[in-house]
Amino acid sequence: MTAARHSPHLLAPSDVAVGVVGACLLAPAELWLLRDGGLTTVATVAVLLLAGGCGCGVVIAAAAAVARRTRSGAWLRATLWSVPSLLAMVPVARHLFDGAFAQTLPGARVMPVLLPIATLLALIPTLRIGAAVVRTPLGAWLAVPVLLLGGVLVDVVNRTVKRSEYPDVHTLLLVIECIALGLAARTAGERLGLWPGRGRGWIHGGRALLVLVALALPAALAWGLPTQHDRVTVATRGMHGRMMVRLSRIVFDFDRDDYAAVLGGGDCDDLDPSVNPGAAEVPGNDADENCDGLTGAEPQAQEIAQARVERHEQLVKWRERPEVVAKLAGARELNTVLIAVDTLRADALTDTPENRRDFPNFFALFDASRRFAMTFAPAAGTDLSMSGVLTGQIDPFATRAPTLAEALSARGRKTHAVIPSEVIRYVGKSMLTRGLDGHDRLVNDLYERDVGSYTTGGRTTELGLRFLDEHLAATPTQPFFLWLHYFDVHEHHEIKTANLREVIGEAELGAELDRATRYRLLVRLVDAQLGVVMAALRERGLWDRTIIVLVSDHGEGLGEDPRLPDNHGRFLYNPLVHVPMAIRVPGFTPAVVTRPVSLIDVHPTLLELAGAEDPGVDGESLVPHLFDDAPPELVLRTRPLPLNETDQFGVVMWPHKLLVRREDNVAEIYDLSTDFAESRDLSGGDPTLMQSLLAAYGTLSPVAIDRSSKGRRARDRLAQAGAGDDDDE
Questions:
Q1: What's the confidence (pLDDT) of residue 725?
Q2: What's the pLDDT at 512?
Q3: Measuring CA to CA, which of 142, 437, 454, 582 is 20 to 30 A from 49?
Q4: Which of 189, 125, 184, 178 minimizes the C-alpha distance to 149?
Q5: According to DSSP H, which parts of 264-346 are helical?
């Protein structure tokens, strides 16, 4: 027995300790960031980090034991030490190239296979040379600061770069940090005689530690993060705890439905893959398929459905009034210009003297329009939001209803659009170009794919005006639909400062601009282009014959709130989904509309103005809001507005807003009438409020968001089917 314990073929404590000590060195900073979560949160994350460190240590020790047992040469030992990297690199590489941008990179299709192999081939000489260097006295001491510095730098990158994206990569970086810091401690400890060896005491101590972790981990998984406060703290603060919780839920997702019950997860039946927070609720039964505590037949849902029917009946009667018929008759042959400003937050255009000075053309249009001050995008990404504008549907790809361009084309309009190549790439040509007689694909990333280093607003305007002139020359009496998609605000963090200075014309700008300043400057640039478009419409005699609709597809995170992503997508807080919208119709008086509306309302509104039949979509026509004397029951009714993203879903049921993170089992409620900054969560209060908001969300059409390459191909096929066109140019 004694000989077996000291056998170099077994897991050596000195090797296991690399991962354990590395995790211990990582833990203090992370636990300090999570201190507001209380002792339970800190203890749970500490156990997870220690368990992760033990796991890394066991893998390192196993690889080292195999290498020793083979009594192989130095290069073969380095190879055996490198093989465990595949445990991390294979799953990371498999998902790393799912994104739309990643799919455009050279070799994206084969990289999930090549990247792990390339990593393995790079590690072998690195470990071989590193082992040789560390054996020398000077090399050993030089290795300590190098490894420490490397671990710290990786930690900084992990916590600051793309915090809300690429979770697999962040988990891999966490492993690298742990090993780098552990190796630094081992190298220094061995030189000082303080590192665990193969003695009996170290062996027993190592076994005791593993037993302790084995006992503590199940308790942490079962009872850790019991309250919403705990889960919110881990989800929004720090980094390593969030990654360990995510990894644990993946490992212990017993029914493999992408949701787990451990660590306060939201899966209410982790043995049934048809029951999980992402499942569709089946109305009329007694089952709770989506784990929200409701069965799909709540009275609130029935009341909302009945109110929708009553509103439609009232709307039909109101439309038959002579004064309404006469007013709308004058709009049927008007042209339509849809101006979409990508990534424009509503609060960037708050009505202040400073904003009126810096953005005169936006406010000139607002002052001539019905400005919808409380407009919510259905998502925080262009794909779902802009497609929602074009279709009026919550799930815009799973519909055969005509798009905006298709319906207006059927009403005799010439249809055209100017669309950035990046928007087409992310959303899909089949959806965006349905019904268009022609379109200009504006190349916004000429020098590097998906990197807009130069402005394109001027070119967008130029192409749009070229269409107008050609159309007026050929068929001057035919009404038209023109969609101009301005992309410069989206690229505020990529456009080069020199290029920005040249376009804006401010030579006094410094070499470096903070993100908020750059964002504001790009809004000014688009404002100037908006002025050119409005002037061109007047010069061509089109101003009094053209409806102008201004929208933004989503907002942007500018680093002001740790809950927000680096840019947009994933979450649904107001900076990401509260967007500007204005509708200018000649002959209708300007005003500010404060009732909450959705971007999906644009589609039925423009179709009603064009005299088309009710399209029967998820959105509601805003035409009553264009009238000064519309009945209150048509313009004051509270209705659920959809919010859907990959990491959250929610609903605005004024004045309340519900946000739910399915995977984290976190629900938030805010009273937007008094707390538009979403700083006071009311979810712990009246339980009936939560129930009513969940029921309101349940009345909306379901939508699944899959932005992987497979998901994009599937939705593109749906868009093609909706157009009755199998051609994918």
A1: 46
A2: 65
A3: 142
A4: 184
A5: 299-319, 322-329
The parts of the chain modelled with pLDDT lower than 70 are 1-11, 71-72, 98-108, 198-199, 204, 283-285, 295-301, 498-512, 722-729
Complete DSSP assignment for 681-725: --TTS-HHHHHHHHHHHHTSPP-----SHHHHHHHHHHHHHHHT-
Place of tokens 């073969």: 76
Query: Residue 265: which region, alpha, beta or left (left: phi > 0; alpha: psi -120 to 50)?
Result: beta
Which of 63, 37, 200 is closest to 127 using CA atoms? 63
Look up residue 39 and give its amino acid: L
According to DSSP, the residues that pair with 546 across neighbouring strands are 335
Q: Give the pLDDT confidence of 535-573 residue by residue, as tens digits.
A: 999 999 999 999 999 999 999 999 888 888 888 988 999
Give the CA radius of gyration of the chain: 29
Show Cβ contacts of residue 621 under 8 Å, excluding neighbours closer than 6 positions: 315, 601, 604, 605, 607, 608, 614
In this prediction the pTM is 0.85
Beta strand segments in 544-677, E: 546-551, 578-579, 581-584, 591-593, 597-598, 641-644, 649-653, 656-661, 666-671
CB contact at 8 A, 591 and 629: no
Q: Which two tokens stand for residue 410?
A: 């059927």
pLDDT of residue 509: 58
SS3 annotation, 210-256: HHHHHHHHHHHHHHCCCCHHHHHHHHHCCCHHHHHHHHHHHHCCCCC
What was the pLDDT predicted at 604?
Answer: 96
Edge-to-edge strands of the sheet including 546-551?
438-442, 414-420, 480-486, 335-341, 546-551, 581-584, 370-372, 591-593
Which option is the CATH number for 335-592+638-646+705-723: 3.20.20.70, 3.40.720.10, 3.40.1130.10, 2.60.40.10?
3.40.720.10
Cis amide prior to 655 (ω within 30 degrees): yes
As a whole number of angstroms, the distance between CA 203 and CA 208 comes to 9
Strand (E) or helix (H) holding 522: helix 515-539
Distance in angstroms (rounded) separating the CA atoms of residues 98 and 92: 11
State the number of CA atoms in the 13 A half-sphere of 599 facing the CB. Answer: 35
| Measured CA angle at 699 (ends 693, 701), to 5 deg | 120
Residue 502: per-residue pLDDT:
62
pLDDT at 723: 65
Q: Which residue intervals of the chain bear CATH 3.40.720.10?
A: 335-592+638-646+705-723
Alpha-carbon gap, residue 647 to 652, rounded angstroms: 17
